[in-house]
Amino acid sequence: MKILKFGGTSVGSAQSIGTVIDILKKEHGSGEKPVVVLSAMSGVTNLLSAMAEKAANGEDFTAQLAELETRHFEMVRTLLAVQHQNPAFTRLKINFNHLEELLQGVSTLRELTPKTRDLILSYGERCSTLMISKMAAQYFPESLFVDASELIKTDNEFGNAKVNMELTELLIKGFINENPGKMLFVTGFIASNDANQITTLGRGGSDYTAAIFGSALNASEIQIWTDVNGMMTADPRMVKKAFSLPELTYTEAMELSYFGAKVIYPPTMIPAFMKQIPIVIKNTFDVDFEGTVIQHHCKPSNLPIKGISSINDISIINVEGSGMVGKSGFSGRLFSLLAREQINIILITQSSSEHSITFAVSPADSEKARRVIGQEFELELLANKLEQPEIEKELAILAIVGENMKQTPGISGKLFHALGRNGVNVRAIAQGSSEYNISVIISKPDLAKALNAVHDAFFVQLNKTLHAFCLGTGNIGTTLFRQLNEHSEHLQINNGIQVKIAGISNTRKMLFNADGLSLDKWQDELQASNQKADLAGFIAQMKEMNLPNCVFIDNTASPQPIKFYEDIFKSNISVVTCNKIGNSASYDQYRMFRDTARQHGVDFFYETNVGAGLPIIRTLKDLMSSGDRVKRIEAILSGTISFIFNHFKGSANFHDVVKLAQDKGYTEPDPRDDLKGTDFMRKMLILARDAGYEMEATDVHIESMLPKSCLEAATVDDFYKALQEEDAYFTIMKQQAEAEGKALRYIGKLEDGKASITLQLVDENHPFYMMSGSDNIISFTTDRYKDRPLVVKGPGAGAEVTAAGVFADLINVGAN
Ligand code: ADP
Ligand code: ASP
Ligand code: MG
């Protein structure tokens, strides 16, 4: 025999009830007569509870009562043949009349006891089961409505009653024997005490009813039909990437559900475990999906954990004081007290010094817990052996669960790395003695971020999602988005990384979307955005969104964003930038960026600060971190100047070559910004600092290649005129070089802590002689590379290669 339990959403609409009947027909057709356990229609238990509260406060509840009636009556009209409708209406109406009388009573007395509340809540399951049993009877005439409160006997703990299994099993077996050949439709959730007063088994308790019947009848299987594809790696409402688990052990299912995976009610596992009955969680809305089997033995899995669950609102109470040290009876006294007062403790941690005990309770219990502790330990408090218990609110629990954790080292490291990198502060930690779970207490607003970050960290077979916030939509920004769009599939398949652009801003508009902006329509969407650009607002919103694995990308050349870097690092967000201004301003700021990023466990990548996409910064860092020491760096790092000298040959004159470079977009609006060497200087400064030198901009000696008149010209036009007038100066330079068979090169050098940029003539044996286009070249002479330097050479300017460098940095953030 099988038990089939259908949850609230499965019986929440005419369509889903239709599916339920189809499932039953199939089961029935295979010769089975299952026991069917039903929940109240979705939302009904909450509605009843709200009505009870209203009544107790003397408020009007009639609108909700009418809503409840209508929902059930409409269902009867839709799903029952006309000739069967009246008896159903009559039975339901009797229920609603009783309910109304009860609520009136509560309203008159202005008192709602747990006992009355249970009685009120019981109408949800009674109405739904009555109604569905009538509908089923159209197809299965042997259908029989069963009020489980007559069969399941409990203690008097209303709201969360404990079952007397022995008596209950006897009653269920007896009932079955008296009703052979019937197909039972059983109310979930409800039971009764010795005095036959209605009790309930706790919210979500219909699952438990199914297991109780399964155990009493030695069922072959307990099926829990719900609205998701079985037990998943996390709550799919919180973690979009959650996937369903084919198998779980009873312990794993118990731990996951205990820590909030409400897809199954934790006590359900106990009777099933005792009788070794498999529980199968199935989806009413995807009938063919296999779902999850919970059983004793599972196939070995290589997943380090099975799932992550969470309780999204808890409080913790901290009890602290010298009076606890070495007092063996203290915690016994504390926890017996809380048990006596029916305060449910979700989790306990004790510091190794025994100086404090922290435990988590539901927020509704926290004040009561503090009060009773105050009373029980009054003397200790007076004697200052104990401090006043403190309550902390607005917290959540996140737990990772799986039996494999026991054998796998490094699980907690991975958990804390993911939390730390995302700036999630862990308030307390508990590892179950079974080692099947590690649970952490974190602040409630961080829960969604934490769940997603931890899910990404453990389920690496899925893509890790990076949330990027991009500033600047000029050449580089636009090219980056195009590259991301072109490579997104490759990136997911080969790097396991999915990049979502969660925010974009230029100087006019900004736009956000936590699910990722469209990579091909972002321009139109940004244009149409009604949010005006506001840098501080952009940063604030990025922080506010609190997404996991966040990266801020600065694709501007403006000093404005730099002011926010420190704050961004402090918000545990990594920074990728092609903006050189930050790293080339004061040394103190340069240091502070690194220190702050490190302190907050995030990345600061700026490969494109030097040589666009060429791997220069990375090479230098690798050399340094592997213990090498830089003796000398020589470099050509101005793509613009390279271009100019590579074209300043034969009959070409200097003025025309500069103009050509400008027309091709290789120069700054004022070409002198390149020719004066300022940009080159910034790159040399960053390299020198990365090589370990504490240097300021003024420490880089620059030899100007321009005569005074060109430097002093008031406007760009005047500058071009001056270039023409000084033509002889440049021509002599060129002719001298050509006569000697040499090439003109503007070369940066770092040696013995001194940096300079000078105009030099190099002969054909020099590695810098052969250059083309806008090539950059850098040679590192180090302790290891001392005979032949390590050389990196290639195109060092242009949107395509710069964006590619930013892209690579972004992927490196994802890899960490
Ligand atoms: P029913 O009404 O069928 O009893 P519940 O609402 O009690 O259904 O439980 C199903 C819900 O549990 C799902 O809709 C889902 O949002 C939530 N849930 C939380 N954690 C998990 C998880 N790990 N796997 C699947 N569902 C989960
Ligand atoms: N209807 C009850 C509740 O909502 C029991 C259940 O659905 O399992 O808690
Ligand atoms: Mg449920």
Give structural notes.
This protein is of the alpha/beta class and 816 residues long. It has 4 domains: 2-227, Acetylglutamate kinase-like (Carbamate kinase); 307-458, VC0802-like (2-Layer Sandwich), CATH 3.30.2130.10; 464-601, NAD(P)-binding Rossmann-like Domain (Rossmann fold); 616-797, Dihydrodipicolinate Reductase, domain 2, CATH 3.30.360.10. A hairpin with a 5-residue loop joins β15 (426-431) and β16 (437-443). α4 (82-109) runs antiparallel to α5, α6 crosses α7 and α8 packs antiparallel against α9 (269-275). It is elongated, with a radius of gyration of 36 Å. The model has no long low-confidence stretch (mean pLDDT 93). The chain binds adenosine-5'-diphosphate, aspartic acid (ASP) and magnesium ion. Adenosine-5'-diphosphate binds at residues 7-10, 39, 204, 226-228, 231-232, 234-237, 256, 261-263, 307, 309.
What's the helix and strand layout?
Blueprint lengths: L1 E5 L7 H16 L5 E4 L5 H13 L5 H18 L2 H28 L4 H24 L5 E4 L18 H14 L4 E5 L2 E3 L5 E3 L5 H11 L4 E6 L20 E3 H9 L10 H7 L3 E5 L8 E4 L11 E14 L7 H13 L4 E6 L5 E6 L1 H14 L1 H5 L7 E12 L9 H11 L4 E6 L5 E7 L3 H12 L5 E8 L3 H21 L1 E9 L3 E4 L9 H7 L2 E2 L2 H11 L4 E5 L10 H6 L3 E4 L3 H4 L2 H13 L4 E2 L11 H9 L4 E7 L2 H9 L6 H10 L8 H4 L2 H13 L9 E3 L5 H5 L3 H10 L1 H13 L3 E9 L2 E9 L12 E8 L7 E6 L3 H17 L1
Parallel strand pairs: 1-2, 1-7, 2-4, 3-4, 7-9, 8-10, 17-18, 17-21, 21-22, 22-23, 25-27
Antiparallel strand pairs: 5-6, 9-10, 11-13, 11-14, 12-13, 14-16, 15-16, 18-19, 19-20, 24-26, 24-28, 26-27, 28-29
Helix pairs in contact: 2-4, 2-5, 3-4, 3-5, 4-5, 6-7, 7-9, 8-9, 13-14, 15-29, 22-23
Bound molecules: adenosine-5'-diphosphate, aspartic acid (ASP) and magnesium ion (MG).
Protein name: Bifunctional aspartate kinase/homoserine dehydrogenase I
Function: Bifunctional aspartate kinase and homoserine dehydrogenase that catalyzes the first and the third steps toward the synthesis of lysine, methionine and threonine from aspartate.
Subunit structure: Homotetramer.
